[in-house]
Amino acid sequence: MKNRLLFILLLLINVHFGLAQDLVQSGPMVGYSTMREALLWVQTTTSSDVHFEYFDKGNPSDRFKTETFKTESKSGFVAKLIADKIMPGKKYNYELFVNGERIQRNYPMEFQSQTLWQWRTDPPEVSFAIGSCNYVNEERFDRPGKPYGSEHEIFESIHLKKPDFMLWLGDNTYLREPDWNSRTGILHHYTHTRSLPQLQALLASTHHYAIWDDHDFGPNNADSSFWEKKTTAEIFKLFWGNPNYDVIDKGGITGTFQWADLQFFLLDNRYFRTSNDNFTGEREILGKAQIDWLINALASSNAPFKFIAIGGQVLSTEADYENYATFPKERRYLLDKIREAKIEGVVFLDGDRHHTVLSRMQESEEVYPIYDLTCSSLTAGSNNNKEELNKYKLEGTVVGQHNFGILNVSGPRSNRVLNIKILDKDGKELWSKDIKAQDLKYK
């Protein structure tokens, strides 16, 4: 009788524990990091009370707790909570609690605070991942025939590289025809992509930042006329953990963040965009207000590398598809303003094209070369476009298979060096290039 009661008790405990685990739909994910706070994200399957507990790896007995948040259907059962008891330059473990029960995972759940290096030491070494175009198959809504998404194990390869953070360069999910006409559909597909099993370990221990492109904004080649753009902006902000959005106060997702001595400028190439087929007036991708904010922000930045993240290619001279070359007047305005303001250290980061390539533009010996790294695609269909019409293309950098980038910035403050590595789905290096900050200065 005692054995039977013990068996029943253990069974009830296991069932209760299993129910708690089953309440997690996706995540947890680590969002932005600063010296004094970091964002923690999770999505549950139903309305639940959620909180996180965290502790310095070097002092695990001193535990801290976030506020408790009740997830709701209207916001996709998403919780975004702030770890606000952290100190600079520390590494933290964290635990997720749903309805009072600790959720266990078989991979690390950790985050870091940024280092207070200013006036003290050289800036720390920084490593970050980049990629774009992530298609997670959903047969009932996908186009018939061969699945468009594949090799999702690439996210496990990124996780094994242990970058400080990942910068997602757009088309991070692909809205389908049943999705983009309703909030219900958009929420569904963001949830479906975020729930990919191969993604979970990467989400849990690497900080994440993101911009968008057409497919996570709306239909293919979507522009400012998209009728649900306010909804997709709302849901993008719900599912990502950038420190700020819409810094120009005109809608959209424009923002910026710093990591060590680097600064990243997150541009919105959809919210203000003129239709590709509308030639009746001024044609714009970013719009003057966003470009003028960017130039002012770049001019204010002391970063040796100023990374400008945008959904589509900027420097390529191939006036095709959705490249900036198809909007020549605004492209010229942007590049002229960068030169006119004598802004140094500019590197563009973008995606969209379903292949990877590095472009380099130097108009004369009086100016430094500006680089544009296109990195695509992660899991969506890839292609072997050779960029034959791109006069700025660097030979040996075109990649026509699933890939991602690992960018590393190291060296003393006065001599920082950017190393770019492009790797295949298994983490094997395809090519590598060093760029010195000293070489991105005016003479």
From TrEMBL:
Pfam families: DUF7800, PhoD. InterPro entries: DUF7800, Metallo-depent_PP-like, PhoD-like_MPP, PhoD-like_sf. Residues 152-391 form the PhoD-like phosphatase metallophosphatase domain. It comes from the Bacteria. Keywords: Signal. Residues 1-20 form the signal peptide. SUPFAM superfamilies: Metallo-dependent phosphatases. Residues 25-114 form the DUF7800 domain. PANTHER family: CALCINEURIN-LIKE METALLO-PHOSPHOESTERASE SUPERFAMILY PROTEIN. This is Alkaline phosphatase D.
